[in-house]
Structures are given as structure tokens and as C-alpha cells.
UniProtKB/TrEMBL annotation:
Belongs to the EamA transporter family. Keywords: Cell membrane, Membrane, Transmembrane, Transmembrane helix, Transport. It is a multi-pass membrane protein. This is EamA family transporter RarD. Its main location: membrane. The chain crosses the membrane at residues 7-29, 41-61, 73-94, 106-123, 181-200, 212-231, 238-260, 272-291. InterPro entries: EmrE-like, RarD. It is found in: Cell membrane.
Amino acid sequence: MHISGRGVAMSVFASLIFAIIPAYALYLAPLDGVQVFAQRVLWSLPAIFILLIVAGRMAALKEAMLRLMREPILILAIFTTAALLGVQWLIFVWAPINEQMLDLTLGYFLMPLSLVLVGRIFYSEHLRKLQRIAVLFAAVGIAHELWRVGSFSWVTLLCAVGYPPYFMLRRWMAFDSFSGLFLEMLLLAPVAIYLIINYAPLGSFLTAPHLWYLLPGLGVLSALAFAAMLGASHALPLGLMGILSYIEPVLLFFMSVFWAGEIVESGEWLTYIPIWFAVLLVVFDSVRVLLKQSRHVN
């Protein structure tokens, strides 16, 4: 599979938006992490539907629904991907509110390595020399953190292992990015409604009127980021997508320190510096290959 410039751009765009969302969640008090998750699901649903219309993908949504009726195995698959996505959406907004954003960040440092491993084992994807060097540097950083701390928190492990099976199922299902995401949000909507009705603090929107515009904004950001990420997962080899995904935890790290105010211990720098170098190698390699492909086309 060739490197798609559009796929790389979508992956970088998704990383930028995802890095904003945990910091954004800090402004949604008095809602706790579970309520922010529930509201995120409900506000994402109309945002994704509007994107479907704007992008002219309603025919793809109709085809996806027809496929669900023709192929019952896809119903089980879409319920599974919805559950996997729901867990990731919950932890993504729960962690910063509960001062575990650095654990979240470490999980997203581990997740691209999981994607690279999945791409190599299940899809026989091969990495170029600079990509292999980048993975090596990233692995050094992760190994140092494991040696320094001695274990990973449950937040870190959930982030690290949750997305690879999701992407594998979504690739197998071959649904349009917007259509599949819309169907997953439809399945998660009853859960979100139940959580809001039974556990939401009374009068939240009266005591915090800023929620009226911040929550729709969260839905738009979530829809745009996931649509871009899923588009990238179809346009790029999983290994390359995994390496490009290091952009997100680097940005999350800066958000954790400079926005959320979490403190980095001196020993942690030996974790982050090799990973940042890996990101630079990947960016350089991707730009180099894209320029080479462009010269061949012209």
C-alpha cells in the first residue's frame, strides 16, 4: 500500500483534535467523566449525521444498513466495535477530569506500537528503514518507563490495547468511515441516555450555562476527529498509521503539563525524548516518500 498524502493529513488532523479533547473536558464542570462521555455521545450523533449529509455519504449509510440486514454477522461486529469505542471514549474524558492524564498519555504512547505489531502480524506490513529505527526509539522510551514505574495503570493498558481490535474489525467490515461511526453512535445513544437520566447532577445546565455551547462543540470535535482517524485507517497501512499516531500522545503530554498542570518527574524525560525523536523520524520519512511519489506521478 502506497503512502497517501490525504491519509497522512487526516491522521495528523485527527491527532491534533484528539489532543484538544481531554483539555476541553476540564471546562465541562460540574459534569464528571461519565456524564461528559454520555453527553459526548449524544452531541456527536447529530454532528456525524450532518457530516454524512455534507459529505454526500447518505447512500453509503443506506448501503451499510442493507449490508447489516443481508449479513447478520455484521450486527455482532458493529455491537462489538461500538462497545470498544465506548470504552475508549469514556476513558478519554474520564482520565483528565480525575487527574490521570499522564497515564492516558502513556497509554497512547503504547497504542501505536500495538498497531505496528498488528500490522506486521495480521497484514504482513513491512516498515522502511527509518520507520524501523523510529519504532526502536519509541520502544526504548516505553521500556524505560516500564523499568522506572514497574507497571502500567489500568488506564494505560486500556488505551494501549483497545484500539487495535477496533481498527481490525472496522477494516474487515469495510463500512464507510462516517456511516460506521454513525451506526456505532446510534448503538451507544441508549447507554448515554440511561446514564444522563439516572446519574446526571440536577440542574447542570442552569448552574453552568456554558454547557449549552461547549457540549455541542465537543460533539463536533469528536465527529471530525474520528471521521478523520477512520478515513486514515482505510488509506494508510496500519503500521504507518500506528507510527503517525505518536503525534497525539506528544501533544497530550504538552496538554497534561502546560494545560492540566500535571508534574513530570525528572526520570520521565528519558521516556519522552526517545519517543519525540521517533516522531521526528516518522514525519521526515513520510514527507520524503510523499515527495518521491509526487515526482513519479509528475
